[in-house]
Amino acid sequence: EIVDEGRRMSVGASYVSEPATKGKVILKTTLGDVEIELWAKEAPKTCRNFVQLLLEGYYNGTIFHRVVKDFILQGGDPTGTGTGGDSIYGGAFPAELHQRLRFFHRGIVAMACAEKDDNRSQFFITLSPCEELNQKHTIFGKVTGDTFFNVLKANDLEMEDGDSERPAHPPSITGFEVLLNPFDDIVPRHPPQQPAVVQEKAPPKPKGPPPKKDFSLLSFGDEAEEDEEVFNAVTQQLKKAAPPPPKQQTEDNKEAAKKAEEEHKKREKELDKRLAELEKEEKSNGEKEKEQPKEDASSKPPKGIDSASLQQHLLEQIRRKRKLFEKKSDTNSKAKDSDESDSAEEAPRTAPFF
Between the CA atoms of 277, 278, 279 and 283, what dihedral angle is there, to the nearest 10 degrees? Predict the structure, then answer.
């Protein structure tokens, strides 16, 4: 806590003197979301390194391996030992110290390094003001909003035996979200890496017959044994009456479908044959109707005939035309009867099928 009033004023003044941020990301952790605003203008190389490692999924699955109560929460090492990690520049890069960026308040995000210019991928978040770290570590961001209370949960973590700075169950980074990327030209070197998910194997099933139930251990053992026998008998009957397995049913359905398809093709051939016959018959009837009987010379009355001979000639013409008409009517009626009998025989074939 800040007891000195003068120091309280200096801390308040630090918020006012801090430059404006340019960039915003969210770390998804097992402690909860951590919202970080970036000073990309004051520490451009450090912020670019941090954002690109996020986009590449470099931090996914990494743990916060070091927790010093009321001091810092440190992570960013893929090995989880505190000695690993690398930057996007292929090695260490120099510090970026700024006069207006200081450890005046908690929630400051800075690079962790053994030496001043040995920045790689590890970073830390302060849990209280740490003025003794000024001008020693590159400050590139700060935790904002209520998400800092998730960071403070680190103070309650249980530590491993014999190690006062390593949690027994370290919190980890599960993902990220870049809300405002200050570097539009960043191109990840590879797709985001996903943390390995270990799937638990199901316990092996015991081999051999199932164990026999011992009903003698129960106070109602005789009744339970009788119920078990009845249950087993009913189960056997249901198994016998059960339908065939899906594989057999599928084979039967395929065979039935094959027969139905063959019958369908056979009917189609018969219909096509009948249709061809009907078209041929209609064509022949049309040609017959087009043919007109030719008038012979006897149908015309001779020139210079008297009235009695003319009347006789007309009577003969009428008789001849009547005979032709009766002959044609008889032919049409026979053809009609033949068509009706054929259609009656073929009626079952033309019935629709599905």
Answer: 100
Taking the chain, what is the end-to-end CA distance rounded to the nearest angstrom? 87
How long a stretch of residues is the chain?
A: 354
Beta bridge partners of 25: 36, 178
**What is the CB-side half-sphere exposure of residue 110 using CA atoms within 13 A?**
31
Please state the separation of Cα 91 from the chain's center in Å: 40
Beta-bridged to residue 24, according to DSSP, are 37, 180
Angle (deg, nearest 10), helices 246-290 and 307-346: 180
Q: What is the pLDDT of residues 295-354, one digit of tens each?
A: 555 555 555 556 667 667 777 777 777 777 777 666 666 666 665 555 555 444 444 433
How remote is the C-alpha of 291 from its chain's centroid?
73
The closest alpha carbon to 125, from 180, 183, 54, 67, belongs to 67
- What is the distance of C-alpha 168 from the center of its chain? 38
Amino acid at 44: P
Alpha carbons 67 and 75: distance in angstroms, whole number:
9
What distance in Å separates the CA atoms of residue 2 and residue 278, rounded to the nearest whole number? 110
DSSP per-residue string spanning 256-280: HHHHHHHHHHHHHHHHHHHHHHHHH
